[in-house]
Amino acid sequence: MTKVELFAAIRRDARLEGLGVRALARKYGVHRRMVREALTSAWPQARKRMPPRRSRLDPFKPAVDQMLRADLDAPRKQRHTVRRIVDRLVAEHEMEGISYSTVCNYVAARRPGIRQEAGRGPAEVPISQTHRPGAEAEVDFGDVYVELAGKVTKCHLFVFRMSYSGKAVHRIFRSCGQEAFLEGHEHALSVLGGVPTGKVRYDNLSSAVAQVLGFTRARVETERWTAFRSHYGLEAFYCRPGLAGAHEKGGVEGEVGRFRRNHLVPVPKVSTLAELNTLIDQWDAADDQRRIGSRTHTIAEYFATEQPLLAPLPDEAFQTGREFRPRVDRRAQICVRTNRYSVPVHLVGRRVRVLLHSDELLVFDGATLVARHERLIAKNGCRLELDHYLEVLLRKPGALPGATALEQAQAAGKFTPVHDAWWAAVRKAHGTDAGARALIEVLMMHRSMAHEHVVAGIAAALRVGARTADVVAVEARKAAQADQADTRAETSPDPRTGPASAGASGGRPVGRPTQIPEEIISLTQHRLARLPVDTRPPPWVAVYDQLLRHRPASQGDAS
Predict the structure, then answer these.
(1) At residue 197, what are phi and psi to the nearest 5 degrees?
(2) d(Cα 495, Cα 510) in Å, to the nearest integer?
(3) Which of 139, 183, 208, 304 has the fewest CB atoms within 10 Å, i.e. the most exposed one?
């Protein structure tokens, strides 16, 4: 029986049977002292605490306390570490046989007490907060690692979390710059379907804060962030710098770690960040069905209450890309954020308009998009597009084999082994320069035809031993027409469902493309045939005869 039950039995026998202390002790096999304790109180007294065990550190504790008190007025970067305390105890107090961990445990437990005894403020205690629905949110970035196209890459996880419901929107970017910061907000607000009406908590990241003014909450914001906040009607609240500020937005700090541990372990393996962000959208939808802590409802149920209270989104989207106006240099390249990107050669010497996004760079000549590149994150990089240099390489075919643009095209898979095999065959048949020009004519076909159709045309030309660009063009058009015919056959209705289709086909199987023989013509003739008709009169130069000093004699004079 428990001690409470034992006390109840002793008190019952003493009351009903009138047994004495000695008889009760013999009956229950306990000491007479416990019987007297049971007769005194029905509830057993708490067990006495054992006195703390003496430690070998006891003689040195006053010295340690003195060092910790001295740290209260010492500069922050010149205070005692545990290692320094141990070294001083050994050197100044001849301490021996005491481990580092023993001193470390005492210092960790004693340091807050020293601060309180000196009146330097109470211990840090978190205060529970109540959040109004639709009013408050928190934003933060977290570092993650992703195996991107076979290479482990450090990326950045953007998190926008509503404080009331706990609904969070996640997005992964290659960088945590201002472009990613704004695009993350744009994506999160579109998913939420509105804008929080109260404060959104941020730390002092450089994408939003240009300068922290002293120890106040005042901040000098960046211009583009101010414009973005004004466009969407966001009200920012900036936390204190350092670790203390992280506790002011603990909800999103914990959400970064929770999402990283639950969805990004093991390290995800994807081809592109777009593929990973598609998975993240699915994970966010699944997470809406979980419960946070001891809450009685799911995140989705709380957000259903919160969503109608959000402010509406603006009608127009905000331009999140940063605009630049660089000049194209003589190498047909522009420099943006210390990295170089190629543009078409006809733009050399002109200024172009560049929009830099978190994952891509767009180049415009007026309103026309002339180049699109994947953004380079590292400094002093170079990204060249082989198509931008084809006109120059026609005049300088010897520069093609060692061109950096060709090497990058091979690494990106745009210049395939099929291209390389056909180029080698053409060089062997026509020579180096003529072979390079023929290859360049084939590469120009990518501008007007799909990549897979051109590759199919090159492969067909290799099979028949053709070494001219005209044959490649014809075979590529055949591949394109075959794809179009297959598409029409798949989308056309079943001929067996209607009686008219059999008669219209003349007994032939409907849905199978008719093989029309094509005559191989010159690519030059094909281009000339598509030119508009020239309606101008033929040239006439007889009027220039009056400029001659001696006019030619007429037939009448000669006679």
Answers:
(1) -85, -15
(2) 6
(3) 304
